[in-house]
Structures are given as structure tokens and as C-alpha cells.
Amino acid sequence: MMAEFISETKAGTAITRLVLLRHGQSIWNRDKMFTGWSDVALSSKGEQEAERAGVLLQQADFILDCCFSSTLQRAFETARIVLSAMALKLPVQKCWRLNERHYGALEGLGRLAAVRKFGLWPVLRTQISYDGEPPRLEMDDARFPGNQSGYAGIDVKELPLGESLRLAAQRLQPCWQRIIKPELEHGRNVLIVSHKNLLRTLMGQLEHLTPQQVMKLKLPTGRPLVYELDRTLKPVRHYYMDEIS
Ligand SMILES: O=C(O)[C@@H](CO)OP(=O)(O)O
Predict the structure, then answer these.
(1) Mean pLDDT, residues 48-76 taken together
(2) Residue 199 alpha carbon to ligand 1 centre in Å
(3) Whole-model pTM?
(4) Was 49 annotated as part of a binding site?
(5) Which of 17, 86, 123, 236 has the fewest CB atoms lying closer than 10 Å?
(6) DSSP β-ladder status, 7-8 and 14-22
């Protein structure tokens, strides 16, 4: 469904809407494991969260013009469930640059196992610092995307062995600048289904937050966060969809 017009606020500022949605709970969220680019499924709770997100948007008669997701099944599947609950036949455009930050050698480990293997500080710094990089993978590790068929065709130098939030924010930029931002500039309402850290960096970019402020942002699974943007894509306000329903 195309937006026929860009809605106007009382002050006459043109508004377009960007919905940021962290996928529903995954089985590794449930089991408290570092996930990153590991491609795990939604839990049954996550499927229900995705359904509820779609119902909320549908009940609000939310007009959506395009939908993007990461290539990871927990995000893509969430997007598919949301669109189906909204009875919308939009394609889900997948972009690997919307994948979660890569957790390097921490992927597949729980917090305790990670600390036992790498020590407290390497794990802690990954979680509390914007520039904190996880212990990196070796190039021959099966968890390196360069060894996975789904990423064939992408320059191997672009694929991560482990990322800080800053590095993840940087690799998102070509997708944001060339693909998503132009849609918003044309007044189209956009849904992005992605991941906690990747979306936190995007919120930081939109709101001009400091790295410290970004690290404090919380982003629960399965709750659509709506940003109303003016013509210059400056946020006018933002709210969780379930706070206004
Ligand atoms: O990858 C992970 O471990 C989590 C938290 O960073 O991300 P998400 O559940 O949002 O994919």
C-alpha cells in the first residue's frame, strides 16, 4: 500500500514514519547466548511477539510502504509474520548490512562460558563499550560469514570476524544512505526489522546521541518503535506502538 500523502502536523511539518522493530525473541535470546550472525530461529514466544506487533500496527491502520530486514531468519521471519498480520503483500527486502553486530568468538556461548574461556574483561568490554570488540574469529572458523554460502558474492574483506558497535554502525551506512534513507525522503513509511545493537546505533544516529547514550538504550524484542520524522528526517517524536494503543 503506498502512502498517498505525507501527513502534516499542526505546525505544518511534513511527517514520514520509520518503524524500528527488534525481531521477536529467538531461541538463543531465551537461552541467553551471544547470537550475532548465528542464524537461529524464533522461539514460540518470539512468534507470538511478532504476531502482536503486526496486530498493533494493523489496528492502528498504520500505512507501510516498504519493509526491510536483516538476512537472519529471526528478523526475516518476524517481518513476514508482521506483514501477514497486517494483511499486507509487501516484499521483505533483505540486507546483510542490517544483521546484528558480529559477536566474533563469543557467538554460541552463554555469559558464564564466555567469561571462563576469554576472561571477564574481554567479555565485559564487548557489552559496555561502544568501541569494545569481541575476541575475533579465525578466518577458517565456520562462524565467519565468509565461509557461509549465504554471503557468497560479498567481498570477503567487508565481512566481519567480530565487531564493536561502531564497526557495525559503519557497515550499515551504505544500506541506510543508498537504500533506506531515500525511501523516507520520498515520504514513504518504512519498517526495519533488525537487531538490538544495530538498531541502537541507528537510534543514536537519528537522535545524535553520544556513544555513552547509545549504550544505555534498551530495545525489547517484538515492540514496534515508531519514529516520526520531518522533511529533513529529524525525529519529531518517537513512541512504542503499544504505548498509544
Ligand atoms: O545477538 C545477540 O546476542 C542479541 C543481543 O545483542 O541480538 P538480537 O537478539 O537483537 O539479535
Answers:
(1) 97
(2) 10
(3) 0.94
(4) no
(5) 236
(6) antiparallel
Check pocket membership of 196 for ligand 1, CB cut-off 6 A. Answer: yes
Question: Residue 102: which residues within 8 A CB-CB, separation 6 or more?
Answer: 36, 37, 134, 145, 160, 161, 162, 163, 168
DSSP 8-state code for residue 132: P
Of all protein residues, the one whose alpha carbon is nearest to atom 5 of ligand 1 is 196
Is 23 annotated in a binding site? The answer is yes
- Report the topology of domain 7-244: Rossmann fold (3.40.50)
Residue nearest to atom 8 of ligand 1 (CA): 195
* Centroid of chain to Cα 188: 19
Report which of 122, 153, 157 is spatially closest to residue 139, judged by C-alpha positions. 157
Q: Give me 139's grid cell.
A: 578466518
Is 63 labelled as part of a ligand binding site?
no
Whether the ipTM is more than 0.90: the answer is yes
- Quick: pLDDT tens for 143-155: 999 999 999 999 9
Maximum CA extent, the chain: 57
Q: Residue 37 C-alpha to ligand 1 middle, in angstroms?
A: 9
Q: What is the pLDDT of residues 90-142, one digit of tens each?
A: 999 999 999 999 999 999 999 999 999 999 999 999 999 999 999 999 999 99
